[in-house]
Specification:
alpha+beta; Protein Transport Mog1p, Chain A; 4 helices; 9 strands; about 25% helix; elongated
Length: about 240
């Protein structure tokens, strides 16, 4: 209500303050008023940090699996390269077994005479066996066995004994060894070892050389180089035939 003209304007009473205009639609304060942060009377909460626990757990599991894989792989790696030899044996071998020179035995990696596995079971039969010496005949695995028969018609009997093994296959490349000779390869799919068998005749004597072995692969033993087995078998055969 306006005062009549000529009357002085009444000043506002003390203690009264100008009321702010009502808030605008949407809950925002009117223009000119500061924006309120958070809830009135409460401090603003800092944003929550994401925990690193799951990441750490994944890293730990990954490290454990990696170390486990390396440990398993290392076991098989070194196991494939382990020494297959035994301490050097002593004792006398049958006389015909000494025909094989120490140099040939070293080349074959079979420097350890097996006295118990070598014998003269009959007057016309001699068996000789060598395996590996620990610390000397690495790497891989090797075994050398020789049988010497005396008498007519023994060559075919020896060949028949070798071919009785279903996996034995005759191979060529046999020449200038005795009066006649045949070679055979035996590879067993379920085994790492392979074998080369050489049968030769000189006069009334027949000789069988069986040389077998396996070589280290990445994590296990594998088939050896068959050409190497063949060449060493021929060297052993020539040593024996040279003393008959």
């Amino acid at each position: 209500m306006n005062s009549p003209q000529g009357w002085p304007q009444q000043p506002p009473q003390q203690g009264w303050q100008q009321q702010p205009p009502p808030p605008q639609p949407g809950g925002h304060p009117p223009q000119g008023y500061p924006q309120q942060q958070g809830h009135p009377g409460y401090p603003q909460q800092p944003p929550q940090k994401k925990g690193k626990g799951p990441i750490v757990a994944v890293v730990i599991i990954g490290v454990i699996l990696l170390l486990g894989g390396l440990g398993t792989g290392g076991f098989f790696f070194f196991n494939a390269r382990k020494d297959h030899g035994v301490p050097l044996r002593t004792g006398a071998m049958p006389e015909l077994c000494t025909s094989v020179s120490p140099e040939t035995l070293a080349k074959a990696r079979t420097t350890n005479p097996d006295v118990q596995g070598s014998s003269n079971p009959q007057s016309d039969t001699t068996n000789c066996r060598w395996d590996q010496t620990v610390g000397r005949d690495n790497p891989g695995y090797r075994l050398l066995w020789i049988q010497i028969w005396e008498g007519e018609g023994k060559f075919d009997d020896m060949v028949g004994m070798v071919t009785a093994y279903s996996n034995a296959k005759e191979v060529g490349g046999i020449s200038s060894i005795g009066d006649e000779a045949k070679g055979f390869v035996t590879v067993r799919p379920s085994e790492a070892s392979a074998e080369y068998s050489l049968v030769a005749r000189k006069g009334d004597h027949c000789v069988l050389v069986e040389y077998m072995g396996a070589d280290p692969g990445l994590f296990s033993l594998t088939n050896p180089d068959m050409d190497e087995l063949a060449e060493i078998s021929k060297t052993v055969m020539n040593d024996v035939l040279g003393k008959l």
